[in-house]
Amino acid sequence: MNHTKIPLSVLDLIPVGEGFTIAQAIENSTKLAQAVEAFGYSRYWVAEHHNFSGIASAATSVVLSYIGAKTKTIRIGSGGIMLPNHAPLVIAEQFGTLESLYPSRIDLGLGRAPGTDRQTMLALRRDIHNDGSDFPLMLEQLQYFLSDRAGTKGIKAVPGYGLDIPIWLLGSSTFSAQLAAEKGLPFAFASHFAPDAMEDAIRLYRANFKPSSALQEPYIIICINVICAETTEQAHYLATSELQKFLHLQRGDNSPLSKPTHDMSRLWESWEEKSIRHKTRESIWGTPAFVKEKLESLIERTGANEVMINSMIHNPEDRIKSYELISKVWFE
């Protein structure tokens, strides 16, 4: 199997690095999108999060519209929209607008988690009973609004009605894997922060997949953290920003993405290190040759149809360079 024929894509949380403003973070991500388009990556997805000082992607569709205007060919989409935070009609209209502006370039990835803490979730949803359990029903409503089934008298998403916008289900557990299989939709698994359920979710998705008008065979994206540099030492140094982000999340510390450090031992306790090493065990940090080898191994283990790369690198130039180095050993 020629693994270099497997597409690579990009997940971006629009990180606000220590010392950067939100406007600078969005501009940095826009430059990254332009760069990875030139490098040969297939998709550029942005993830919805709320009330995070270090993440500027809360208004996901707005950010995607800006990036779409600054790029030409790369597919752009949500990785994902947290559907229980929104009325399905509104998402159909937003992504119908994006599809109208950037035809055949839009992906609508959906998740059921809030993408935030409980207090912020309640501020978003204004309903203490909306815990995401009705996600399958909301998905059906969204699919309806994007279809041509509403007829002449039904409620239509304008724009959105009748547009062929690919819907993806995203997950970090087996719930969305099962739902994606039942609906015959492509599935993206979040190994970049929840690797524990990866194998079970993939197995469940493949075993229960039912062909649909959207998809005839299972299609899986595996998302992981990757950092590539000229030397192993430099890659591991840059990766300390990722480790600090996980440490902050574990402590409930809502901080911007930290600058890298040469000494993580002064920042965490041994039990914290053990926990974070476990959560990041699928992360790949190293030279181009090492990254290529590990990506091939991941594809061999999972049968992934596509790999989506998230790079929590503080310096925007280093982040672009990481994706460039990977592209040179993967696409060329």
Automatic annotation (TrEMBL):
GO cellular component labels: cytosol
SUPFAM superfamilies xrefs: Bacterial luciferase-like (SSF51679)
All residue ranges annotated as the Luciferase-like domain in the record: 23-305
Domain of life of the source: Bacteria
Coiled-coil regions listed in the entry: none
InterPro entries, alphabetized: Bact_Lucif_Oxidored, CmoO-like, Luciferase-like_dom, Luciferase-like_sf
Keywords: Monooxygenase, Oxidoreductase
CDD domains per UniProt: Flavin_utilizing_monoxygenases
Protein name: Luciferase-like monooxygenase
Record organism: Sulfurospirillum halorespirans DSM 13726
Lineage summary: Bacteria, Pseudomonadati, Campylobacterota, Epsilonproteobacteria, Campylobacterales
